[in-house]
Amino acid sequence: MSGNLNPQPKNSKYWLNLTLAGVVVQVGCLTLVIILVALFGGLWLDARFQTKPVITLVLVFASIPVSLVLMFVIARSAAAKIKANVEEQRKEEAGIGKPF
Length: 100
Prior knowledge:
mainly alpha
């Protein structure tokens, strides 16, 4: 006999941690892509219009609030999915042992 009598919480914590890791990776990659697009787009536009650092700086600084807003949207979306999953599990657990 094993000492683990209730494997369910360990499994749900595993999926919660996996979901949180996925959100962190998503946010990190999205932030990196936004900043790189702003940087290279600004460099290209500066070369095109001969305004050396002006457009690059404006785009890089403008990418900061954009990435923060997208980070917030992704985090809220993930939190809503996690909350819905937890509520669904609670409903299933509440129904255990009840007659049909």
